[in-house]
Structures are given as C-alpha cells and as structure tokens.
Write a structure and sequence with these properties.
The structure is a single chain. By secondary structure, this protein is mainly β. The protein has one domain. The chain has three helices and 15 strands. The strands form four sheets. The chain has a five-stranded antiparallel sheet with strand order 1-2-7-8-13, with no helix packed on it. It has a four-stranded mixed sheet with strand order 4-3-5-6, with helices on both faces. The protein starts with 6 loop residues before the first strand and ends in a 6-residue tail after the last strand.
Length: 256
C-alpha cells in the first residue's frame, strides 16, 4: 500500500573492560546529505524503501557524502501490528518536515534529504544527494562515543556554524544496523523484515548559541540492542526552514 559525510572516522583503542571500541567522527569541508526515511512495519509498501535506505553507504555514496537514518512511526499501529522501533517524536518530526516543505500530507514510506522532501527514490533522490554534496559546509560537527565503566555509552558532540541564527540546532542519534523482525499481524503479516540505520536513541534539538552547541549524554544500552551494530549520527539543522547544514555519521563504529 502506497501511503498518502565529509567525515573522518577514527577508531580508538578498546576500553579496558569492554570488547567494543570508541568512535570519533568529524565532518569535513563538503556538506554530507542527511537521508531520513520515515517508515513502519505496519505498512506493506515500506519494505522496498527500507531496502533502498540499506543501500547507503555505498561506493558511489560513502559516509563522507550520505548519512542515512531510519525513523519508525507508530501511526499505523491500529492496523494490527505494534511498531517495535517507533518513538512518538518521530511522527511529530515528520509532520514538522512536511510543513516546512509547504505540504500537508504525512505518509509512509517518506524520504527527506537534508530537510527536503523526496518522492522519486531514483531520479529525485540522486539529484538531491548530488546537489547537497556539491555545497561547501556551513557548519561542522564532531562526535565522540565510548563505553563507560558503568556499562553505558558516553556520547559527546559539538557543533559550530559560521553564521548562527537563533534557529540552528544540533541533533545526535544512536543507530543500529542488521535488525530483523518477524511480523505477525497487519499488512506485513508473516513477513520477516530487515532494517538498517534504525534510530534507537534521539538527542536534541540543542540550540546553537554564539555559533556553538555541545551535548554530553550517558546513554543506557538496552538489552535488545546489538552493540556490534551500533553507530552514531550528528547534524545541524535550521529549525525554521528544516534545512540541514551539515551531517556526520558512521555505522558499526563501536565494533572492536
């Protein structure tokens, strides 16, 4: 049913009592495109979009150019399948992006590239990725994530922008790859679905003040998260227009 970076990745030494690594990311001089997919396991037309997102990063579009995230929404739960990866704020964010694009309809699957709605996954998606990638970066983002002695994940992020209107904000997300889910109700009943870049933890918005923002968070790692498949993402966004100035991210960067 069809419903109406540049980055440099440095992997640090293992923490003394953990079998997974630290992750350090820094955006580069060109703008990396943030690709957001709004999806749901309760939507029969979403699996092809999930597969499309899983094609990133690629040789053509490495993380230096494209930062993909998958945000699952819960507004199809009434059909019969409760979306296991949804957060209410994701549907709210999708509605906000629709409004910033001058539209009214919220649907799944739904792609946005750096805040711009994309409906044609082939022509429009590639065009937007190339357009964004040709732009010089107007902001920089740095993220550091590492395990703590208490078993949590310490996430520190900072962002700067050369011109910082009051509406700029920093976002950070923790993602997970290679998730499989056996659906037992709803439109995808009986189907085993696969997902990548699924947002597990969402931090922000943190407003830039004086051209700078900083975030420090100790994230509790849930028992159903696969730590070897976790990644981190950060981006700076104009909260008035929805335009993403810069993004950075990597999958599996906490793997030893």
């Amino acid at each position: 049913m069809n419903r109406p970076i540049s980055s440099a990745l440095a992997v640090a030494l293992l923490a003394p009592t953990f079998s997974w690594a630290a992750c350090d990311l820094m955006s580069g001089p060109k703008t990396a495109a943030l690709v957001e997919l709004y999806t749901s396991e309760g939507c029969s037309s979403c699996p092809p979009a999930d597969k499309r997102l899983s094609q990133f990063p690629s040789r053509q579009y490495p993380y230096e150019q494209v930062v993909p995230i998958s945000l699952h929404v819960d507004y199809w739960d009434y059909i019969g399948w409760r979306e296991p990866f949804a957060q209410a704020q994701f549907a709210e964010r999708q509605s906000w992006l629709v409004r910033t694009n001058g539209h009214k309809t919220v649907y799944t699957p739904h792609f946005f590239v750096s805040g711009t709605e994309v409906r044609d996954w082939d022509v429009d998606l590639a065009r937007e990725l190339n357009r964004v990638g040709a732009e010089a970066a107007r902001a920089s983002v740095h993220i550091h994530a590492e395990p703590t002695a208490s078993g949590k994940l310490s996430v520190s992020a900072s962002a700067t922008a050369s011109s910082s209107p009051a509406q700029l904000a920093l976002f950070v997300a923790l993602t997970e790859d290679r998730i499989t889910s056996r659906v037992s109700a709803g439109e995808n009943n009986g189907v085993t679905l696969s997902h990548d870049h699924v947002v597990r933890e969402w931090i922000g918005p943190t407003a830039l003040s004086g051209g700078r923002a900083e975030v420090d968070r100790a994230v509790t790692l849930r028992s159903n998260w696969n730590r070897a498949e976790l990644g981190v993402v950060g981006f700076v966004q104009n909260m008035q227009t929805g335009h993403v100035l810069q993004a950075v991210g990597a999958s599996e960067c906490l793997r030893s």
